[in-house]
Design goal:
alpha/beta; about 240 residues; Rossmann fold
């Protein structure tokens, strides 16, 4: 059976490109999105059937993960890989003017989604002695000046990468790898709408980022774990 790979945030700006890339190279993909994304997940599933199933769920809910993994095991086979794309961004104000709601929101949609996903997926991978997980950080981790005005987002993404690298060290002895990518600005419709006057020539395309994630999920990167791979594009 081909590899079964879980993609959270599957209908966000990057998700559809990654899901299509993985299916086209021969993987079987469980595309996971929020409860409100059921229609978009259904459309993606229809485009890529029979090698893609869409699951609308709250990735911060352990019971929903339990049900989702049972469905994935039955329909696609136990997950060998996972790309944790679920996340979000809120910024635009200095940290000392950022309210509690923004801070908690950034932790919930970035760090907590990664934590809950890892806690759900890793036990099976460890038991099977095989797995590869890719978490999504941001260029702001290594280029903190680009995080000015979005300290909550920067802190949450930094924690995601720290979590991924520490967990990677814990599970490497079980032949399970955990890596992270650090994207620059991704060329998505949402980013274009939010930054209409920006120079977009150096932005990273979803297709390029999908290839980088696909590499980290593949056996070609079998000796790489605990890495944080910069994917900045040509932006300065």
């Amino acid at each position: 059976m081909a590899a079964s790979i879980v993609v959270t945030g599957a209908v966000g700006g990057l998700g559809p490109a990654l899901v299509r890339f993985l299916v086209q190279r021969g993987d079987r993909v469980a595309a996971i999105g929020s409860p409100g994304s059921a229609d978009r997940l259904r459309a993606l599933q229809e485009q890529l059937r029979p090698n893609c199933i869409g699951i609308a769920m709250d990735v911060n809910s352990p019971p929903e993960w339990e049900r989702a993994l049972a469905q994935i095991d039955k329909e696609l086979g136990a997950p060998w890989g996972a790309a944790l794309l679920a996340g979000g961004y809120k910024g635009g104000r200095p940290f000392h003017e950022t309210d509690e709601a923004v801070w908690q929101s950034m932790l919930a949609v970035n760090l907590e989604t990664a934590r809950r996903s890892l806690q759900a997926l890793l036990p099976g991978m460890v038991q099977r002695r095989a797995g590869s997980v890719v978490a999504v950080g941001s260029q702001v981790i290594e280029r903190p000046w680009k995080g000015a005005g979005s300290a909550a987002y920067t802190a949450a993404k930094s924690a995601v990468v720290g979590l991924a690298r520490a967990v990677g060290a814990e599970v490497s002895k079980y032949n399970v790898r955990v890596n992270a990518i650090l994207p620059g600005t991704i060329d998505t419709a949402a980013n274009r709408a939010a930054m209409p006057g920006a120079d977009k020539t150096g932005w990273v395309s979803p297709e390029s980022l999908s290839e980088a994630i696909g590499f980290l999920l593949s056996d070609a990167s079998r000796d790489i774990s605990g890495a944080a791979l910069p994917v900045y594009g040509r932006a300065g």
